């Protein structure tokens, strides 16, 4: 990480201080855009006067003066609990006002609230409505979300075409996830004629736009030799880039490669590092891999308590293997108090997500009763 000397930060702050003072005066005189600019100043991570509370104050002033972006920023702060107590209902109110003021990000954020059911009744119909409006207002993320909505359920030729059009607009707006989704569609021949050439073009653009999914798609292409010359080295290069961009699955795959020595020098330390990052990024299988290292004492000091902790994290993400492994710990009383009841619950969770070993363990328990 590159550090900026404090003296330079102070100098930069003093240089902008006069400008911010002018913006604050303009805000007080009723210029809503200036209020939002001041809010951005106080929220800037490199500003030594950073203050979420002050940012919220000025964003609210901007919103009161009918600047949609200000309302959207207030909504995001309530949604995330930044400088204010987290509140989905307050977030919804501000996102709604932002959207009514024709702010693309506000409409898109409102779409996500309905899609996830955060503080509102989950509604794909409402989500589709707001993602459509966000996309119409040139939100690249809104267009990408809209494209994904069209792929829900059993899409037909018409909805595949709508998804493609939405992803194309997202990509044209330089939103990396839209490009990556297009790359996936062309690579898999999903609703379009398969074209590895187009897949590569879209995934390369996505990766250049710092979208981890695009880099991960390229890693698969080079690993399998799909439309490109097979290259393990290039595949690893793109996996590393994807992991840096917080693509959890890529971090996990790198961990496995360092564990087995596939294309890299075997290293428990690197394997541990990548499993840890993948787990932090909510990749359940990465958590399970990390748990296995602690269970077996592979490159780390053996610890059943840490193994239990990471198997539990894996299970909580819906990873069937994590649930079965955690259930086995309880069934055998390894690192935890023996409990067949708890083991059964965990095997049932694994079976419910379609992990057949969990179903098998349940049958074995039932047969032994």
Write the layout of secondary structure elements.
Elements: H1 6-28, H2 32-43, H3 52-64, H4 68-80, H5 88-100, H6 104-116, H7 124-136, H8 140-150, H9 157-172, H10 176-188, H11 196-208, H12 212-224, H13 232-244, H14 248-260, H15 268-280, H16 284-296, H17 304-316, H18 320-332, H19 340-352, H20 356-368
Helix pairs in contact: 1-2, 2-3, 3-4, 4-5, 5-6, 6-7, 7-8, 8-9, 9-10, 10-11, 10-12, 11-12, 12-13, 13-14, 14-15, 15-16, 16-17, 17-18, 18-19, 19-20
Summarize the amount of helix as a percent range. Answer: over 70%
Number of helices: 20
Decide which structural class fits the backbone.
mainly alpha
Shape descriptor reads: globular
Rg calculated over all Cα atoms: 25 Å
Integer average pLDDT = 93
The termini sit apart by: 59 Å
SSE string, helices as H and strands as E: HHHHHHHHHHHHHHHHHHHH
Q: DSSP strand (E) fraction?
A: under 5%
Biggest sheet layout: none
Unreliable residue stretches: 1-15
- Secondary structure: number of strands: 0
What does this structure look like?
The chain is mainly α and 369 residues long. The chain has helices at 6-28, 32-43, 52-64, 68-80, 88-100, 104-116, 124-136, 140-150, 157-172, 176-188, 196-208, 212-224, 232-244, 248-260, 268-280, 284-296, 304-316, 320-332, 340-352, 356-368. The chain is built from 20 helices and no strands. The longest helix has 23 residues, at 6-28. The protein starts with 5 loop residues before the first helix and ends with a helix. 45% of the residues are buried.
